[in-house]
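Q: Could you write out the predicted structure for this multi-component system? I'm mainly interested in how the pieces pack against one another.
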Amino acid sequence: MKKRISLICSLAVIAAIMVSAAIVTHAAAKKEPYKIGAIFSVTGRAAPLGTPEKEAAEMFIEEINKTGGVNGHKIELIIEDDGSEEGRAVMAAKKLVQKDKVLAVIGPSTSGNTLAIVKTFEESKTPLVSCAASVKIIEPVQKWVFNTPQTDRLAISKILNYLESKKIKKIAFINDSNAYGAGGRAEIENLAPQRGIQIVAKETFGGEDTDMTAQLTHIKGTDAQAIICWGTNPGPAVIARNAKQLGIKIPLIQSHGVANAKFLEIAGDGANGVVLPAGRLIVASQLPASDKQKKVLLKFKKSFQAKYKKDVDTFGGHAYDALNIVLGALKKSGADKTKLRAAIESTKGYVGTGGIYTYSATNHNGLSPEAFVMVNVVNGDWKLMK
Amino acid sequence: MTLTSQIIQYLLSGLVMGGSYALIALGFTIIYNGTNIINLAQGEFVMFGSMMMVTLTKADGLNMGIFPAFLVAVAATGLLALVFERLAIHPLRNADPISVIIVTIAASILMRGAAMLFWGKDAFPLAHFSGDKPIDIYGATILPQSFWVIGITLVVVVALIFYYKFTLTGKAMLACAVNKTAARLMGINVESMLMLSFVMSGMLGATAGIIIAPITLARYDMGMMLGLKGFCACILGGLGSSGGAIVGGLMLGVLESLGSGLISSQYKDAIAFMILLMVLFLRPQGLLPLKEMMMGQSRS
């Protein structure tokens, strides 16, 4: 009898151990975090883009994980720095896809780096939501590649609308020699003739150039009625300063690539009078209450300000939108890359910081020219143009 | 804008950039003459000088006046160059010049990285020395700062000529450049001459950075490009020759500006490097080579 009791006891103990072990493994399986990769230019030339993107992404992940993650899974964000170099972006992409086996990647910060890694994502069948703006990223549509920033084509369309309203027929175009600048140049060369606008001067500058008076002097010698500058800081700020120095009176139109506080700081007095198409973020508080994005923008601005004690910019917004779209899709699809891609493609009416996103099989950018407003600089600050 | 005033504008812009290239090239020359090495960290001295200037003059920093800050920034860069010589160059005094050159590359990466951590990755504007109201010259416009750049470059060049020709230390330094062993036998303290040449070259680099940064902005990675251009200017003028450094710098600046204005801005850097290649093919000793300068000096 005694023997039997002890046998039952030991069986019970073994059973208990097995059950608890099963519970533990089950619980562990349930808590397995979803891995998402990110590639940003935290150092190097594009650091002013990559740094706020990294910060916004980290902030967002912290918020999500505090509220329990996605479908009970925590999100693990693996951030790689590409140093603003294409080669390092390719290495980072391969590491994230092959070694970390992430479900999706957001970034990189620049168009050049994104184009360099598109192939990796197409081949490994992993969704990529880029934070870079070039049309080349999404056209022709690549099955696995999306982006969140307003593209240069939308920006150029917005600028051409503006030029038409001002009856400007002849323009000079000056662009950064990087992928972003070249993308803008290709778009204007394509779209301007359709609207009957003539490009009378085409100039370029290098991203590390510090004096653009030669290019601007050449433009001054033509009969251009406006200058359009396409590039990312600090080049366009130098152009704004040089234009003022040379006493150029025709309007200087910049791209949305300079829509950040740093441009105002380094261009100084040169910034005043500059006109540009920009996302609504920099003029969020000036928007009418009826604007759908206003609430999202103010909330994003406030939480970024609270965490990092500095103003957020458009670039942080690109990463925030990219993550939001990926996680929104992940909620529907679960941890399956093919289903996740399909879910991203079926995103509809997501109100983000960059605009209202509706992706489709033919549109992997999801935005319309309405994502932009025209802004000018008055007394060193952004002003929403009517 | 007429073509004449356009060309005046190109020449003026080119001379201003060329002036700063010339100062940087002089920094290369002084160290090359003392040690037979190319100090590829020269551009970082330029960056350090202008970034120091940012810290010293910023309203929420030390808020110093421009001229005291100028002196402090130049002195600080001289000190940095001295520390660099003691820690990185002096211990390698018996090594191959090529190993030392590689060490200077390492030092430049280190300095750039440290500057990025300390000052951040953004560009900073610097106050102009005397206002930023452009001055009109025959339809071309020039910033008052440009006069400072050209003026200070001239003053530095004249001071250097005076130093080399009329002071004992200057002559001793030249002697080290010609023949180190002979100089030592004549009782010249070669080691302190080398230290001095680093300090001077650091100070020259800082001066170039400080006078040009109000026009071009100061940034942690500005040194690399400026250093490269300064090095091109050296080769163009003849490596090791001070006159060559100045002529090379000014020529490079003017050609770059004329090239991008009149031919195409797309080929701006290509034009500069093509001229450099042509000089290397046709006249590898440079435009004003050291030997001819030295002979000129021995004759005078």
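A: Regarding packing and overall arrangement: Chain B touches chain A through 41 residues (CB under 8 Å).
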